Input
Amino acid sequence: MFNLYNFKIEKLEELLVNEYFQKKYRATQLFKWIYEKRVTNFDEMSDISASFREVLKKDFNLNKPTIFKKQVSSDGTIKLLLQMEDGALVETVLMRYNYGNVACVSSEVGCNMGCAFCASGFLKKTRNLETSEMVGQVLVLDDLLKEEDPNKRVTHIVVMGTGEPFDNYDNVLDFVRILNHPYGFAIGARHITVSTCGLVEGIRRYAKEGLQINLAISLHAPNDEIRNKIMPISKKYPMDELMSAVKYYEKEAGRRVTFEYILLKGLNDSKENAKELAKLIKGTLAYVNLIPYNPIKELVYQRSDEKSVHDFLDTLTKCGVTATIRKEFGTDIDAACGQLRAKNEKK
Ligand code: SAH
Output
């Protein structure tokens, strides 16, 4: 049995032509039914013959994750703990920016990157998420929006939930292609962002995909010394390798990356650190997104005070770096990074 949400259109065409002796356009028809019209019952697919609908019913399903827990914040942020078919629990979040509805999607069950400040890593990775399970996260959030108002929809995607997307490269790439496809979710490439902790092979491979999808890199430090303290991956891929991969991406893909930088009190948030950061990324086209740290009870890290945040931003700006401060959502509902799932599994 195949889950139909697992297939990007090219793979579905291939399967339908080679295994089911169908014409290629069947894949387009199916995409339109399941993503444009959001039909979940094969019998409603009126332009597909009754006999092939029977075949589809036998070999394919349209299963989505189920809602195990739902939290709604005072700012409208929805955080879901979703249950997959094997029982795995995965977090997914909907944030309402003034420019649109942003789904924050998880890419793995747990995470092995071990970043010291992050709650996702409390639970080690048990497996990759299937493409259909990532598509499912967006579908479930989109369904909730449509219950509020049939015209509402998920307009933006960030692959910034639990997991490291480039550690589950193929499934994540199929997922973003389904979202981006005009007969799929039809979300513009520039409204989709994949965020990596800096897996250099992944960045170099992604550079060659010919995609306009945004790439964000969790940098969080201006040098190897500080980065080694908080991100174990930094020992495998030191700063100079990471920066050369970023430059390669800029050249190959013709796009700039965003550096994410969590400000941690007394650790990476001084004016000196800001100057060093500006120097480090000089020669790239990158832009810096400063992230107020979302404190996690079990951890020692503290968020920077407001003055340090603004001084940091000022220093970057004076050094000619474009930077912004990320807006915060759902701080009253554990919306930060793996906290809900970790809490639940502990119980
Ligand atoms: N593995 C990927 C994507 C998941 S993390 C990556 O590292 O980019 C998504 C973003 O949330 C990363 O920038 C991560 O460093 C950040 N993050 C993790 N814990 C956080 C916290 N407690 N407060 C604020 N941002 C956090």
Notes: The domain at 2-61 is CATH 1.10.150.530 (DNA polymerase; domain 1). The CA atoms of residues 120 and 338 lie 4 Å apart. The chain is about 35% helix and 20% strand.
